[in-house]
Structures are given as C-alpha cells and as structure tokens.
Design brief:
The chain has 473 residues and is α/β, with parallel strands linked by helices. The chain has 13 helices and 21 strands. Strand 9 and strand 10 (219-222) form a beta hairpin. The structure holds FE2/S2 (inorganic) cluster.
Length: 473
C-alpha cells in the first residue's frame, strides 16, 4: 500500500481527482469517472468518505476496495491500485524499422492513443526502450468526444498539460520527437483549438504534418491527419504497413473506439472512420475490461462455453478479444440467433458473464466497422472479394481471433484467410518518421492522396449498417 498524506486542498476531492492532479498512476476509468462502470477499483483504507448507495451497489462483495471516482478524501489514506489497472499495452509491431544509420543522438516516437500512450526511445538509430502507460486523459472520459466536451468547458489547458507532463520525463536531451495520435489528441497535445472537431462540419484547426516547439525535444513533428476523425496515427500506421505502395486492393483497419479504415490499391486510396463505440475496449460491456491478467481472452464452444484468461488467473472481466470469441462461440452453439437474441439473459464464464445488453453493444460496434468496410469497397466500385489482404493494426487487433472476427461479421466472411496482424503500426510509423525525413514526406504524401469518405449521412453506409446488425447464419 502507498501512503498518501492529505493536503488541505485535497479534502472533498475524489481519489481520481487527486491521482490526476498529482500525476499519480490511475486506475482505468471506462465510464470517464461518472460512477457508472464500477471499474476504477482501488484497494484503500484511511480517512475517506463513506460509500454511498451507488458505490455500494457497484462494489458488490469487493471488500477493502473503493471506486476512485466516488470515494472522497477526508484525510490521510493508503492505497494500492489493483492488477486490473496495469494495462497490457501493445507496443510491439511487425516488420522492419526504417534504419537510418546517419541518425545520431536521441529521438523519441510517441503514439498517443485514446486509452494508452506508447513511447519509443531511439538512440543512435535503434529503438532502445519502449514505455507504455494509460493516457492520463482517460480521467476526463473514455472516448474522444467526452474529452472534446471537457476541452470546450475550459479543460483544453489541462488536456495539454497532462500529456506534456506525462511525456516530459522521457524526453530529456531529445533531439527530435515525432508524435502521432488521432486528430483530436494531436490538437490537445499541441494546444490547438479542437472545437471544430466536435461540431459539424467537423473541421479541424490543423491537419498537422509540421514541426512544433514542445518542452520535451528540440523539435517535435506532429504526424499529418486527413480529417477530423482520421488522424496521424492512421497515416503513420498505414504507411508503416506498406498499404501506400500496395498494387492490389488492400484493407487496413485500426479497431478501437473508432474503427478507422483505409482501402487502397495502386490507383486509389480511400479512408473513413466508423464510430464503433468503446465496446471492443471493454466499456459499455457489463463485465468488460482492458486486456489485463484475469481478463477472459479466448472463448470456444464445446458442449458449453469454455474459456481461457490472461495469465490463467481467475476471471475478472472480458476483454475485446474474449468478447468477439464469446459471441462466435454462442453462435456456434446455437445459443444466439442471427438477430442477436440470446437464449438466456446471461452466460457465465467463471464469475463474469456476457449479457443480452452486451450483445447489443457489440452488434452496433461490429456493424459500424463492417458497414464502413463495405461502403469503401462500394465507393471504389469493387466487390469485397477483390480485397486481397486485410491488415489489422492496433493493440486490440493483435489479440483477436481472425476466424471469430469473420464468424461474427466484424470482418466480411469472404475475407477469411486473408487477415494479417501487424501490432502497433502507428507506433511503428512514428518510429520510422523519427528516423527519416523521407518517411515523414512519404506519410505526408499518403495523407494528401487519401480521399476521405464521410459516413454520417452516407446513404449506402446507413443501409449497410442496418444489414450488418445481423449475424450471418
Ligand atoms: S465507476 Fe469510476 S470510472 Fe467508472
């Protein structure tokens, strides 16, 4: 347990507010600290407010724990973040680094995700260190929209400072730093006005692809964005995957809160962002969690649901890959019909369960991504079968079972057997950009070549979205 000496100004603040203000490690907060998800568990004792009815209900039988967004400080206390808070963050990537032997000195490549931050420290042309942590901004909401709202309500400075302070310790003596993130996050970290991203016609203040003065490096390059919801993480990641040089039709998907999709061949390159919601990251799922020890990561059907957890620990939640497997297994076992109706209201995996409500959240998430893929193919006037390769990027993607993803229709069934996982492509792209000016120019050129397809109000997308809500029989 860590002791916390309370200051006068801490009295009445929630533990989450204190952790945030003090720059301390924080628990995951899928509901954005609104006291709804019950996931911000902290083991603690000491002078804290008594739990209210809502907290008692959310805590259930978890003795010795409090919820960081609800427990308020009344004096000194001791605390310990649970294992649930140690995110298993994907920093690895497939493929080669663009080695540039002429690159001397210290470089930094930073991939700021909505949920996690991955930092690569590069010394004399080689990645020496990979560090990852939960994005401190999760305290203001699990998704970008809540943070845009927060930024609009005087929170912009806080959002910038939190990221700058989180990156600064790794930046000492850095000559050049590359940052990639979604468009909103690139606005937050640079302090650009993000208000245009939150409202129609979704016009960002900047599309970046230029250098900034930031306090953690002599020069900092912010990766180029394409539109309000296709950011520098996608341009960096897509280029690192090689799709910008693909001869045959290739699909690149980064599955997260938003499913960003790129479809390209030698003639055209299209992209879109499908609002999947945070279901794949564990939010809006009753027992959902990020991929940590104890998370159900694999599920299969063998006369009933069988499962495996990360680290073979007792099940404490279901992460995105487990959720997709679970739905695939329920379909295989005939316990779930094509409309998404479960035979029973809950199916248990040890102490955790999947519910009818969870299936509905997953249906909307998978329908958004599948419809996004099909809309791009339709815009290209190509059949789905013309797609020769599917690249799935992102930490979450690495863990999913490709067959389960096809079974539930997240990836069209016709693309079964064509799926490749490339890990953290955005981080890979940021490293390449840090090492080479040619890679920065290549990424900028691809960002310019990409045609953005807006899905909201897109007739074809709306029609496909409704169709994709169903599970194929
Ligand atoms: S209940 Fe605290 S973050 Fe959701």
């Amino acid at each position: 347990m860590t002791d916390y000496k309370c200051k006068e100004s801490d009295i009445g603040k929630t533990l989450l507010e204190i952790f945030c203000a003090e720059g301390l490690c924080q628990p995951e907060t899928p509901c954005g600290g609104k006291g709804r998800c019950g996931k911000c568990l902290v083991r603690c004792e000491g002078a804290l407010s008594a739990p209210d009815e809502n907290e008692i209900k959310l805590l259930g039988d978890k003795k010795g724990f409090r919820l960081a967004c609800l427990a308020r400080c009344e004096g000194d206390f001791s605390y310990q973040l649970t294992e649930q808070t140690e995110a298993d963050i994907q920093t690895d990537f497939a493929g080669d680094i663009t080695l540039n032997k002429a690159t001397e000195g210290k470089l930094l490549a930073v991939d700021i995700g909505t949920t996690t931050v991955a930092i690569y420290s590069i010394i004399n042309g080689k990645v020496k260190d990979k560090i990852s942590f939960v994005n401190p901004q999760t305290a203001h909401g699990a998704d970008v929209i809540s943070r845009l709202v927060f930024a609009g309500q005087t929170g912009a400075e806080t959002l910038k400072n939190e990221l700058v302070e989180a990156i600064k310790p790794y930046g000492a003596d850095t000559d050049y730093c590359v940052i990639c993130g979604n468009t909103a996050i690139e606005h937050f970290v640079t302090g650009e006005d993000a208000s245009g991203i939150a409202k129609l016609p979704f016009t960002p203040a900047s599309l970046f692809g230029c250098e900034y003065q930031m306090p953690f490096a002599k020069k900092t390059y912010i990766a180029p964005c394409v539109a309000a919801y296709v950011g520098g993480d996608i341009t960096c990641g897509a280029v690192a995957s090689g799709i910008d040089r693909a001869e045959e039709l290739t699909l690149y998907i980064d599955i997260g809160t938003n499913g960003e999709i790129v479809l390209a061949d030698k003639d055209r390159a299209l992209c879109c962002a499908a609002a999947a919601g945070p279901a794949f990251e564990g939010a809006n799922i009753e027992c959902g969690c990020i991929a940590h020890t104890g998370a159900v990561e694999k599920v299969w059907y063998d006369g009933g649901l069988k499962y495996k957890t990360i680290g073979n620990a007792p099940a404490t939640g279901i992460c995105g890959s487990g959720l997709i497997d679970c739905v695939s297994a329920l379909l295989a076992g005939g316990e779930l019909d094509e409309t998404g109706r479960l035979d029973e209201d809950r199916y248990y995996l040890g102490d955790v369960y999947i519910s009818q409500k969870d299936i509905r959240s997953l249906q909307t998430a998978k329908a958004a991504i599948a419809a996004g893929i099909k809309t791009l193919a339709a815009e290209m006037k190509k059949p789905i079968t013309a797609i020769k390769k599917v690249i799935i990027a992102g930490g979450f993607g690495t863990h999913i079972d490709p067959d389960s993803a096809c079974d539930i229709g997240l990836i069209p069934q016709k693309l079964r057997g064509r799926i490749e996982f490339m890990g953290n492509c955005a981080g890979h792209g940021a490293v390449n950009c840090a090492l080479s000016e040619a890679e920065r120019k290549r990424t900028e050129a691809f960002a310019k070549r990409l045609e953005y397809i807006e899905l909201s109000g897109h007739k074809k997308f709306n029609q496909l979205y409704v169709d994709e809500m169903f599970f194929e029989g």
